[in-house]
Write a structure and sequence with these properties.
Elements: E1 6-9, H1 12-20, H2 23-29, E2 35-36, H3 39-47, E3 52-53, H4 60-65, H5 94-112
Parallel strand pairs: 1-2, 1-3
Length: about 110
C-alpha cells in the first residue's frame, strides 16, 4: 500500500460511486484488499499514511479530529437521488407535512453547499 492507494469503506456510498464510474477506473480504485468495514478504520489508515479515502461531508468532524483535510472532488461529478416515501392512501397530518417540508428544504440547502 502506498500513499496514493484508495482505501474504501464497504458501504452504499462506495457502491454508488462504483456504479457511476467506468470499469477501468473502478478496477484500479476499488481493490478488495483495500476495503474496510468502518470509516473510522479508513481515517485511521489515512492518518498513518497508508493511503487516501473518500467520504461525504457528514464526516468532517471525524476528519478534523484525525488532523486530516477534506479536498472536494470536482471531476467526475456524481449525483445522489433523494427520495421521500409516504403512504399512498393516507393523508398527511400537519406534523408529517411540516417534517416533509423540513427535509426538502434541508436537502436543497445541502445541495447548495456541496
Amino acid at each position: 500500500m502506498s500513499e496514493g492507494d484508495l482505501i474504501t469503506v464497504q458501504a452504499p456510498f462506495a457502491d454508488h460511486i462504483r456504479e457511476k464510474l467506468t470499469l477501468d477506473i473502478c478496477t484500479r480504485l476499488f481493490r478488495s484488499d483495500y476495503q474496510v468495514n468502518f470509516l473510522s478504520t479508513a481515517l485511521g489508515m489515512v492518518k498513518e499514511g497508508l493511503g487516501i479515502t473518500m467520504t461525504l461531508g457528514y464526516a468532517k468532524t471525524w476528519v478534523d479530529e484525525q488532523g486530516l483535510v477534506m479536498i472536494p472532488i470536482h471531476e467526475p461529478q456524481i449525483g445522489y437521488e433523494f427520495l421521500l416515501y409516504k403512504h399512498r392512501q393516507r393523508s398527511q397530518r400537519p406534523a408529517m407535512k411540516s417534517f416533509e417540508n423540513f427535509l426538502v428544504k434541508a436537502a436543497k440547502d445541502w445541495l447548495l453547499h456541496i
